[in-house]
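hey m, so remember when u said the tokens were messed up on ur end? i reran from scratch. heres the input so u can diff it against urs
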Amino acid sequence: MKIYSTLTRTKEEFLPLKEGEVSMYVCGVTPYMDAHVGHAMSYITFDVIRRYLEYKGYRVKYIQNVTDIDDKIIDRALSQKIPARELADKFFNSFTEDMACLNIRPADAFPRATLEIPKMIEMITSLIQKGHAYAAKSGSVYFRVRSMPDYGKLSGRNLEDMMAGARIEPGDEKEHPMDFVMWKAAKPGEPSWPSPWGEGRPGWHMECSAMALGYLGESVDIHGGGQDLIFPHHENEIAQSECATGVKPFVRYWLHNGLLKLGEEKMSKSLGNLVTIKDALKFYSSDAIRLFVISSYYRNPLTYSLDALDASQKGAERLSKAAHIESNGQFPLELDLGSVEDSFVAAMDDDFDTPKAVATLFDLARQINTGRDSGLDISRAQQLLLKLGSVLGLTLAEPDTGSAEAGPFIELLLDIRKSLRQEKQFGLADEIRNRLASMGVVIEDKPEGASWHLKR
């Protein structure tokens, strides 16, 4: 089994620190608004990786942090005139609901930044004592980047390149422009905690270092996140962690998923160009959204597209039907199921190549349908389809036969609606749309004509 590590920029044989066990840390959310499908892309990716490692027989300990104190949380809480903790709790609960709806298994622990501050203070104190950090007069504490000779090794940068155009502004308390904050001195009206340097709160990078070390030990097998976290977040995690413990590497395999794009830009809260998971689930099943994500190689960028999601919805329904069609045959389908599973494993062993693994499922579904049409017993092949689908987190739930039975009537109503619109009787046409919507039928008007699906 080989996986690509961002640190070495090569595929490496996967050898965890402890035989049969895998420690895995994935950067979590900052809960200040509903999660979007860009989050879904990342957490589906690492859910599949976790599931596959367990399928291979590993015991996986999976930790995902919650950044429940942050500038964005504070600003939004102030604008809504509620405590920051109340806002963070609300949207973390919303996030966990979204993950459950996407069939993403919860982490073994979700450590929250505000509950792990003693560990962070202890780590910062150690770094100051070792000369890797310093406290400024304001009460903020900074990491001294020049104290780490190989700073920049994850992102492939060096201090000279990073310094191009950078300078210390008048009044800046940093020794070096690239020094980063580990403890932020409190500002009036903001939540804060006591520390040896005065009231304040932890920096984002320190949070993940302290949690990874505290929950998984001084060396972590897999650390994951989006490619936008490589620098500065993960770079700074390495600096803090390796300088604090003296243990290298802090992480054995760095895995980064590509980013989801809406048009030419990545989907993000800060840009405001996002589609929430809740909105996506109104129109598409969890299997469709997962299939949309895993049909692309996890390190590649992915563009959000309704056409692609429509295709994924149809693909998910095709797999589900193959998994549940009735098998009446007496003689078994002659198919080497071991070879099918071997093809699936070969794909996933090659840096989690889910597009090839998904292709294996569709090929199996095709053979199931052919076998059924030939009057053969397809039950063992169906069991394998369900088994391999679950490794990818697909439920392959039995299709809703109600939609098939109602289909001709809905199509008839759409034809009537089309005629009404042509006759400019828009009120009656809208009434048909609204009545169907009240029964859970979603109509989408496209240039090529109207289509429909059941609300999920």
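this time it looks ok to me. The chain has 15 helices and 15 strands. if urs says something different then somethings off w ur setup not the seq
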